[in-house]
Amino acid sequence: xxxxxxxxxxxxxxxxxxxxxxxxxxxxxxxxxxxxxxxxxxxxxxxxxxxxxxxxxxxxxxxxxxxxxxxxxxxxxxxxxxxxxxxxxxxxxxxxxxxxxxxxxxxxxxxxxxxxxxxxxxxxxxxxxxxxxxxxxxxxxxxxxxxxxxxxxxxxxxxxxxxxxxxxxxxxxxxxxxxxxxxxxxxxxxxxxxxxxxxxxxxxxxxxxxxxxxxxxxxxxxxxxxxxxxxxxxxxxxxxxxxxxxxxxxxxxxxxxxxxxxxxxxxxxxxxxxxxxxxxxxxxxxxxxxxxxxxxxxxxxxxxxxxxxxxxxxxxxxxxxxxxxxxxxxxxxxxxxxxxxxxxxxxxxxxxxxxxxxxxxxxxxxxxxxxxxxxxxxxxxxxxxxxxxxxxxxxxxxxxxxxxxxxxxxxxxxxxxxxxxxxxxxxxxxxxxxxxxxxxxxxxxxxxxxxxxxxxxxxxxxxxxxxxxxxxxxxxxxxxxxxxxxxxxxxxxxxxxxxxxxxxxxxxxxxxxxx
Length: 515
Known about the structure:
Protein name: U3 small nucleolar RNA-associated protein 15 homolog
CATH topology of the largest domain: Methylamine Dehydrogenase, Chain H
Largest sheet: 4 strands, antiparallel
Distance between the termini: 71 Å
Domain U3 small nucleolar RNA-associated protein 15 C-terminal: 344-490
CATH class of the largest domain: Mainly Beta
WD repeats: 118-159, 244-285
Structural class: alpha+beta
Main location: nucleus
Pfam family, one: WD40
Strand order of the largest sheet: 1-28-27-26
Number of strands: 28
């Protein structure tokens, strides 16, 4: 009697994830460190100078964290209510922050008490930052105003009241010390010049603006609001270059990497998308546990810090590069030691002893070996196989069909089993690698259970799903045939043109040589 041969599961090519340089680069971070703050993290800002500490604004406190510290190394808590938007100066010595009570405080990193306090806003101040000359501070508040302050005298230089809603984001130009930008919930982004009494440019974003970002060159502006991230050309008067819609919920924060070649956006949909600044296509993405409010990258992209609505700070550090150190290891045997004797050919007088190989059969193979067709089909319809390796399920169905026992294995099932079987067929019948087998299975199921149609709402619903899936696939095939017909027509036209060109050459006196 011949031994049982296990079911052969055909190997189908899979479209795997394309591994790019960006994938390798952005996956080179360690397991994240989780730090719990007192409230939602509304701002994260890295110091521009070593050792690259970062300031985290949450609730009524500003915490300063070291590069690898999980506890704050310094805390600023001189706020009666919530603090907002703590931002470093370019030299890393000063820190400015807004507050819920409408005042702006300036701190020295080495001290605790505020050096200056700027009062002028009548409502909460959510946006503050330094101009590139280091001696002036801009701010934006819920009183619709955008102000400019002088640090040495602690006085207001100019106030702009051009927005019609809350001012919630802003940034300063690194090229021009007089230029800063604010974004508002009135759907506009305004560019201000401290030497003028009004804004010099207004850009309509179309959604409440949550974040703005100016490229280091000062020529490109990025605005985020709603589900959109839009890039504008400032030098062309605010011309829209590209509009990106890769998030499912509101985009809350923007960030550039150290080289300026990658743009990062965080959203309430729990994702951070990374775009190439040349093609503006998503090259990588991160997934987080809850909605994202703030995002920051350290210089050289060594650390990525994300603040979330539940007050959790997610910190990822880059893995250190593996250094090839010449260590004195124990000398291993040469390669020839391991392959010795593999190529030996037995001689005529040699006696060969073969070691029996024990073959372990899977559950469905054991059942097929015992001719239990129905139980073998049940075994491959279990969730681990049905969901993750559907090719095994289809291979067993094909083997049952080859044996002629597929109809008997499909018959005699209850409502739950029929529902499970129809769900699998309706989901996988449109896959080209499974279609030939599952179409036969669907025909048999329809023939067997046609008399009971109308007795169970669950089974009827699954039959309708199967009909809908096959109908859609037929429509797709018809559309593809139409496209193929159009392409054949175009190719035929090209062929005719080529023939006409040859005929013209012949008419010009070119004849084939006669023997």
